[in-house]
Design brief:
Blueprint (H helix, E strand, L loop, with lengths): L11 H16 L5 H14 L6
Helix pairs in contact: 1-2
Length: 52
């Protein structure tokens, strides 16, 4: 199946997150828990959190 490509501008954080996800997927099924943790940390840091 062909996928349609779309060009968008990404921040450096978004590029890092995509790279981390791709690296984690490449490591499957052996997997590296640190890669999953790293990707999750990047994602969490990108979310807008309410200040308490």
């Amino acid at each position: 199946m062909k996928q349609e490509l779309e060009w968008v501008q990404l921040t450096s954080e978004e590029i890092d997150l995509i790279a981390a996800i791709r690296n984690y997927n490449k490591s499957y099924p052996d997997g590296y828990p640190e890669l999953l943790w790293y990707a999750q940390q990047l994602f969490d840091n990108m979310l807008r959190q309410p200040y308490n």
